[in-house]
Amino acid sequence: MTREDVERNPRLHNVLAGELWDVAVIGTGMGGATVGHELAKAGHRVLFIEKGLSDLSAADPTMQLDNNDPSERLRNGNWPTKITGGIQGMRSQFFAPLGCGAGGTTLLYAAALERFDLNDIKPSSESGNPAGWPITFEQIQPYYRKAEKLFRVRGTSDPLCKDDDSQLLMPPSLTECDEHFIESFKASGLHPYRLHVAYGYESGCTECSGHICTQNCKSDAKTICLEPALKTGNAFLIDRCEVMRLEADKTSIREITCQRDGGMLSIHARIVVLAAGAFFSPVLLLKSANEFWPHGLANTSDMVGRNLMFHVSDLIAVWPRGKFAMRGPRKTLAFRDFYVHRGIKLGSVQSTGLTAGYGNIVYFLNTAFDQSRWGWLKPVRPLLRIPAYIAAKLFGNATIFATIQEDRPYLENRIVLDPHEPSGMRFDYTVHAELRERIGLLRSLIKKAFARHRLIILSKEISMNYGHPCGTCRFGTDPSSSVLDANNKAHDLDNLYVVDASFMPTSGGANPSLTIAANALRVAEHISGILR
Fold it and tell me: Which secondary-structure segment (H or E) carries 256?
């Protein structure tokens, strides 16, 4: 931090001078921004700490997702460096679809905000799963409704859900093509509904996905939570600030050590809320090992970084039965007929807003190539444009649907500190036989459901969604098998909370964003009670 920074903003001097905050929130994505917003509204003094930039007005929505320039990636709200992953022992590096900047990954997300199913959120005693939830669906249900209202979610009720108390905003009219799909799905015995999305559909809305919305039409965490929190006068944001360590004694975090513009900074708060994401929240806890915590903070259970889950997301190109107009909203349809099939948890199906065109196919092929064993063979990569061109000619105007299939927690699937990797970490992940079987089952069910249509599954054999990591600091009632308690407080420390997707003991079969927001609202209420 420079002297010019302080002179331009005198409040920075108070941060430097060791001001004691009520709450320091590390990360400003869906969990961090939401919890900080609620606490600031309640009158508590909140400091947001963000690794990326706060001013993203210079973002370029045309930037290539595989751009290698870290500074340009940060200007566009993207995570600056590649993630290293080992799948079945095969190592690869790739740019995960993660955000970095005020708003976190919600800057880039496609704004699908759907609830988990009633059967997803059950205590272990009811579910028979040792990785059960320490709260019930009924306990989080009112916060789901509050989060849907806060983030201005649009859609219609799932006809298969009997416990839906949501009051969603009306979605815009369907395109002619999607009307056709709705009727076709119903004729096949499916139960489609309007996907729950957080778009305002202002004039010119393109349902921004993969880049920052420039007209405040998409309900990201920056627009909905962070900026209103700052306007209360109770919250302050310090950007370009990377937390290096959490300094703790046996019972509490005493200091947050940060780096900003080449200088070091110490921050103090009564309560620390960690919301750096399911990849990097465990990284920070493991990096903060000391004489009191030789295996990492809050890690007496050895569960920090373990139980990593993603979702499996197949991309499926489906052709309409005829020529229909496609102009209008495209991220519109979903169905959950196979969410649980004969007692086996699979997941949901939804439209992505994409069509099978040349640019999308190039991106799919490049992503698959980067994550394959041939990712090191860079000269081959440009040649992928040739099959993409041929495929685009064959595919024509198909609508791309995606599955969101539940992953299960396993101890060996984990985050590992590795200072030799670009992001200072790697993940190790084993694909278990049960997951392969469930993927095959869902694919066969979808092929039967779409039998009236021509379709092609665009994904490779196992298509993990690296934008949905979760479970790496899970909450639970047993301190020996979880990191956090039912209120998302670390079992081992009296002033540390974690509110990103790390807390989830199971991954569900839906996008985790709304569940993160709802849980953050619940935790904020608890923290506010403690502070008072």
Answer: strand 253-260
**Residue 364 amino acid letter:** F
What are phi and psi for residue 459, nearest 5 degrees?
A: -80, 160
What's the pLDDT score for residue 163? 75
Q: DSSP letter string over 336-376?
A: -TTSEETTEE-EEEEEEEEE--HHHHHHHHHHHHHTSTTTT
Question: What is the chain's length?
Answer: 532
Beta bridge partners of 266: 257
Mean pLDDT to the nearest integer, 57-86: 92
How far, in Å, CA of 244 to CA of 134, rounded? 31
In order of 31, 32, 141, 273, 348, the CA distances from 137 in angstroms are 19, 22, 6, 23, 18
3-state secondary structure of 90: strand
The architecture that CATH gives domain 3-356+397-531 is 3-Layer(bba) Sandwich (3.50)
Question: DSSP letters of 174-190?
Answer: PPHHHHHHHHHHHHTT-
pLDDT digits (tens, 9 = 90+) for 160-214: 987 778 899 999 999 999 999 999 999 999 999 999 999 999 998 999 999 999 8
